[in-house]
């Protein structure tokens, strides 16, 4: 299903906040393994979570700005009018689906699958998948490029600097067990 940069994925807040998950998602996007999308509302939530977790407001704003600068075409606009027309188990998630519809996305990457029912998403030709499954699928379809992206992530890891195995262990601690095991097998 994930064949190229033309494959578009909306990233939910819960896969953007954990830095280790975000790093791999962003490096894979940088290597054109898929096209990331998000909305202002998703990033507002991300910023709120960062501040709640003790990151200063200026630092949180800087991180959001850096992501938008790195992927200038990722920001979905004009999705708000769709929100009231959507029905999800948690109304607070409607903005994510609205952004995915407006972006003509193929998938929503979220670790909150219960709030994105398969049957309902199928009516919009969408599917929700967990970050670990999404990243594993990307690796499966392009071993070499995914491994290069991972190695560059490791080379750029600071605060603290980590080797490949420490990064893989941090993936495992953050729910990317299959992703870490797959990358480990490719090393």
* Beta-strand residue fraction: 5-15%
Largest sheet, if any?
5 strands, parallel
**Low-confidence stretches at least 5 residues in length (pLDDT < 50)?**
none
CATH topology of one domain: Rossmann fold
In sequence order, what are the helices and strands, one letter per element? EHHEHHEHEHEHHHH
Question: How many helices in DSSP terms?
Answer: 10
The structural class is alpha/beta
Mean pLDDT: 95
Count the E strands.
Answer: 5
Report Rg: 16 Å
What strand line-up does the widest sheet have?
3-2-1-4-5
- CATH superfamily membership of one domain: 5'-nuclease
Q: Under the CATH scheme, which class of one domain?
A: Alpha Beta
- CATH architecture label name of one domain: 3-Layer(aba) Sandwich
Organism: Arsenicibacter rosenii
Protein name: Nuclease
InterPro entries: PIN-like_dom_sf, PIN_dom, VapC50_C
């Amino acid at each position: 299903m994930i064949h190229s940069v033309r494959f578009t994925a909306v990233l939910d807040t819960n896969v953007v906040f954990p830095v280790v998950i975000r790093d791999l998602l962003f490096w894979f996007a940088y290597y054109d393994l898929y096209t990331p999308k998000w909305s202002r509302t998703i990033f507002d939530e991300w910023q709120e979570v960062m501040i709640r977790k003790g990151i200063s407001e200026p630092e949180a704003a800087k991180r959001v700005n850096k992501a938008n600068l790195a992927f200038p075409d990722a920001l979905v606009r004009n999705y708000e009018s769709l929100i009231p027309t959507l029905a999800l188990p948690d109304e607070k998630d409607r903005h994510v689906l609205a952004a995915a519809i407006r972006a003509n996305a193929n998938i929503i990457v979220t670790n909150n699958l219960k709030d994105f029912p398969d049957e309902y998403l199928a009516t919009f030709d969408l599917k929700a998948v967990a970050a670990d499954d999404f990243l594993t699928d990307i690796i499966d379809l392009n071993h070499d490029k995914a491994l290069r992206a991972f190695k560059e992530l490791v080379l750029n890891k600071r605060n603290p600097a980590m080797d490949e195995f420490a990064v893989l262990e941090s993936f495992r601690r953050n729910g990317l067990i299959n992703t870490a095991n797959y990358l480990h097998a490719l090393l």
